[in-house]
Amino acid sequence: MQINADLHIHSRYSMATSPKMNLPTLATESKRKGIQLVATGDCLHPEWLKEIKQSNEENGIFQLDNTNFVLTTEVEDINQVHHLLIVPSISKAEELYEFMKPYSSNIDSDGRPNVRLSGIQIAEAAKEAEALVGPAHAFTPWTAMYAYHNSLRDCYGDLADTIYFIELGLSADTSYADRISELSCLTFLSNSDAHSPYVNKLAREFNRFEMNDIAFDELKMAIIREKGRKPVLNVGMYPEEGKYNESACIRCFRHYTLSDSMARNWRCSCGKTIKKGVKDRINELAAYDKPHHPSHRPPYLHLVPLSEIIGMSLGIGINTKGVRVIWEKLIGLYGSEVSVLVDSNIKDSGIDEGVMNSIIAFREGKVKVHPGGGGQYGKVELFENDCESNEICEKQRSLFDF
């Protein structure tokens, strides 16, 4: 069976998250997005873990309203690197909490705790707990492994051989990461890192796995790629949409080339810092000019959230009533956002003709992306006419193609 999974989100117990990030809301919204398996996030937080315990559990998976949850957490190490842990059980989450509590001043107050431990020590703790661990949003310039280290071994030492995945993050995709030779043996995860259940945040990136059942051991085998379990598709934003794709000023968002940034000593003309973009960091680390995809690497399908397409078509904000009404109608007709975006024939949906044409234009790859940088997201434009030379113009395939 094939399972769509978003393996990195946060609960309302993390800083800067929506109070609506609770299990009932996540269960409802995951189904409407087309996700069968979603992360709990923040499983080291005692209050959040109490709430998770109230759900039915079987084989390391927690069920609520026919939605499946797997225990996960993100922690920041002593070097400000963020790590994603996928945890097999409540008892193992409690063991990790007890181990990390003496090294953290905020483990009881923030769902994403800071711990005074190295990447090596966190990997050791994960191994002891039979959890999977890997770098979260591996290329992000503020808190990623490759922001502070040049290799997996720099971060995890001899335990680098026990790292089976990296999370790509919103500013990178497979074509970026497969230019780095040391990553060829790893599984790439594309997750939303959602801080709210809004329709353009939750599952804006997700993974599709081939599994025999929805169980922790099955997920673990799929990530490690054992016994026929494996990832079959990564789905996510165009990397240019990410807010750290190109090097840019963190205040005025002016973009710079790598050479210009270095010549300016990473100082913008406005006086603030130029933050190195993922694209430039990849170029520094890359062994290949073009990606070398290993045979196990699944395709990467780029999606734009449905609410953004509707909003662009109508010329209104994505959180407005007009967008919500059309989004709700389409989900009611076709079951999930993924179905609307790539699979269903929407020509007889009865929705606004401009919106319908915009969805079709997206499917045909008539997309232009203005890259993000410095903390500002990139912008997507959809065109119903022929593509120009500076646009991304590659016809989307159905999920059933994978």
Q: What attributes characterize this protein structure?
A:
402 residues, alpha/beta, TIM Barrel, two-stranded parallel ribbon, 16 strands
Q: Can you put this structure into words, describing what you see?
A:
The protein is of the alpha/beta class. Helix 7 links the parallel strand 8 and strand 9 (187-189). It has two domains: 2-240, TIM Barrel (Alpha-Beta Barrel); 305-401, no CATH class. The protein has 14 helices and 16 strands. Strands 1, 2, 3, 4, 5, 6, 7, 10, 11 and 14 form a ten-stranded mixed beta sheet that branches. Strands 8-9 form a two-stranded parallel sheet. Strands 12-13 form a two-stranded antiparallel ribbon. The protein is globular. The two termini are 13 Å apart. Residues 385-394 have low confidence and may be disordered. The protein has helices at residues 23-33, 46-53, 90-100, 119-128, 145-148, 152-156, 174-177, 216-224, 258-263, 278-285, 306-314, 321-334, 337-343, 353-363; strands at 2-6, 37-39, 56-58, 61-64, 67-76, 82-87, 132-135, 165-167, 187-189, 206-210, 230-236, 248-249, 274-275, 300-302, 367-370, 379-382.
